[in-house]
Recover the amino acids of this structure.
């Protein structure tokens, strides 16, 4: 009699519908894709950062730059020359490491802005200058991965760009929101500047309608403008 009372008090086991099973499968698949993308991105960044720090060219350039800096009293004098023009980097090759110390943001930069590149790294926009060269260095990143922290960026923040040719420091001058077809932000410049581009708004679901643009000027090492470099080249001929 007691057994019958207990069984009568139990609730029947829930019965899942076909729709619930479908949603469960879809959720599992989506979670798997997200996990794979995240793991691939982390492993890529970790390995490329490790390789970058141990590259012979990187070690040599860091050592050379230390010897080139001279100190007179309390004033530090750094090299005045821009990095000479070089052949365009190969697609998917590593350009260097971009970081914003205040935001604890750091990411390896790879040549190109195709979908796979932006999944793994920040992309260097082809045909724009390379760090240290006179001109406009353009980079792009996803707002929900590497460039998520740019929403908290402020003017005067420091941005560092380390490459095999040396370490370059920039200071943020402006933060603007533009239309996606505004290519003027990537126009050539007579001075050494860095332009970072990502989608906007940061919290938008789907394809964001605007672009968030960060413009920073190179402050170290001190470099000459493009017009000055060209003028010097004419005198040397």
């Amino acid at each position: 009699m007691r057994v019958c009372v207990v069984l009568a008090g139990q609730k029947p086991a829930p019965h899942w519908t076909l729709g619930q099973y479908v949603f469960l499968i879809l959720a599992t698949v989506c979670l798997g894709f997200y996990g794979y993308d995240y793991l691939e991105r982390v492993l890529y960044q970790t390995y490329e950062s490790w390789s970058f720090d141990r590259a012979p060219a990187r070690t040599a350039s860091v050592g050379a730059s230390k010897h080139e800096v001279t100190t007179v009293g309390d004033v530090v004098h750094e090299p005045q020359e821009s990095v000479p023009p070089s052949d365009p980097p190969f697609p998917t090759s590593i350009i260097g490491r971009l970081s914003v110390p205040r935001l604890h943001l750091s990411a390896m930069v790879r040549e190109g802005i195709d979908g796979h590149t932006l999944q793994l790294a920040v992309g260097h926009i082809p045909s724009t200058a390379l760090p240290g060269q006179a001109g406009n260095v353009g980079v792009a990143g996803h707002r929900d991965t590497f460039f998520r922290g740019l929403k908290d960026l402020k003017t005067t923040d420091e941005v560092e760009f380390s490459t095999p040719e040396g370490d370059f420091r920039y200071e943020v001058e402006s933060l603007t929101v533009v239309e996606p077809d505004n290519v003027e932000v990537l126009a050539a410049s007579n001075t050494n500047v860095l332009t970072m581009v990502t989608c906007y708004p940061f919290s938008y679901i789907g394809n964001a309608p605007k672009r968030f643009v960060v413009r920073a000027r190179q402050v170290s090492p001190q470099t000459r403008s493009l017009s000055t470099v060209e003028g010097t080249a004419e005198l040397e001929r």
